Amino acid sequence: MSCGTKGGGSSIGGGRICGGGSVKITSSGSSRGFSGKSYGGSRSGCGGGGFSSGSCGRISRGRISYGGSCYGGGSYGGGSYGGYGGSGYGGVCYGGGSYGGGTGYPFSSGSFGGGDGGLLSSNEKATMQNLNDRLANYLDQVKRLEDENCQLEIWIKEWYQKHGDIGPDKDYGHYYQEIDQLYNELIAETDDYNKILLNIDNTRMTAEDFKLKYNTEAGLRQNVEADINGLRPLLDQLTLAKSDLEMQFESLKEELICLKKNHEETLRGLRSQRGHGDVSVEVNAAPGQDLKQRLDQLRCEYENIIEQNRKEVEVWYESKMEEVRQQVSSSDQEITSSNHHLSELRREYQTLEIELQSQISMIQSLQTNLEDTERRYNMQLQQIQAMIEPIEGELASIRCEIESQNQEYQLLLGIKTRLEQEICQYRRLLEEGQQEMYVD
């Protein structure tokens, strides 16, 4: 059985075991390594650090492993084990049989085996002498192992000085403060950047709104110009109709003047005929009508006819002009109402288009902010997970190490208990031997 190993084998698996003293486990590597502490036993007391009879195995710290040398003797499984006491009691040394080897009993049973018959043989003095000799050999081996342990500690310190720092952990608290400060500054800068992006988006939306308004007003202007260009032929037609009516009025006026002239000429001719052609004709007939009176009647009739025609023409002209005015007014009203309705529809369309663009821009901005927030929280979550994983690994390794140390502690505690029992048995045997010596 090798001392201080885990799961069997021949490696050194812990610190030193001091029989009669304290048990100290100072392993900082794996369960099969050691970390530069002393190996072997103490000079005082019985029992020391256990070394295997084979190779020392692998000495590891962290992830760096290097070979070690074995230490012969002093093992529970195959070497010699020294007796109790350096010089015995009363200046007499007692020896004993072999412990855990030779023809004795195994170590796990807690009994002692001598060379031929064990500690409980009839020749107790020879047994005590053998134990005393073996104790002296054991103390020599302990001294040698302590020297080798010191040399090994020196080698380990030199190796760590070359390959790694074994000093105390550095304080990185100020770095964490700087990291927190920089992280807060980064968050503030990110907020400012998002605000600037939002302002840029708002400005872009405003510019797009003004551009849309400009395009709408330009479209309205083009429509009004098109309406004006469409009304110009109607205006030309109305102007031509007005010119035709004026020409008809002038022609009727000239015709009226001509009729008046003809009437005056007719009257003058009749008057001249009356004045120069007096013919006295006596006719045996009834008296005729008065010609002057008849002419006056005709003149009145013609004047009435002319006046009536003039009034009819004026009434017809006024009615036609009124119809044209009504048509133009109704057309103007219809055009005005249509333009007003069209303007209202265009304004409503423009308002809805602006609102749609603003909603689209707001949705895009909110989506961008949502993506930034998700990306930032994913990064923080990844950082936290990256921090948690090594901590969980360290926790698992610490748990494994605690379990290993607990097992080693239980093993060493059992060894200590058995050693104490054996020491008590040694003491009892020594007392019996001294009593026999005094009796002799």
Give an account of the 3D structure.
By secondary structure, the protein is mainly alpha-helical. It has a domain at 128-153 and 176-273 and 295-437. Helices cover 67% and strands 2% of the residues. It is built from 3 helices and 2 strands. The chain has helices spanning 124-163, 173-276, 291-439, and strands at residues 58-61, 64-67. It has a two-stranded antiparallel ribbon. Strand 1 (58-61) and strand 2 form a beta hairpin. Helix 2 packs antiparallel against helix 3. The protein starts with 57 loop residues before the first strand and ends with a helix. 18% of the residues are buried. The model is unreliable at 1-121 and 277-288 (pLDDT under 50).
How do the SSEs run, as a string of H and E? EEHHH
Instruction: Give the helix tally.
Output: 3
Largest sheet data: 2 strands, antiparallel
Estimated helix fraction: 55-70%
Fraction in beta strands: under 5%
Characterize the overall form: rod-shaped
Q: What is the terminal-to-terminal distance? A: 41 Å
Radius of gyration: 68 Å
Compute the number of strand runs: 2
Q: What is the element layout, followed by pairings?
A:
Layout: E1 58-61, E2 64-67, H1 124-163, H2 173-276, H3 291-439
Antiparallel strand pairs: 1-2
Give a concise summary.
The chain has 440 residues and is mostly helical.
Name the features.
440 residues; mainly alpha; two-stranded antiparallel sheet; 3 helices; 67% helix; rod-shaped; disordered N terminus
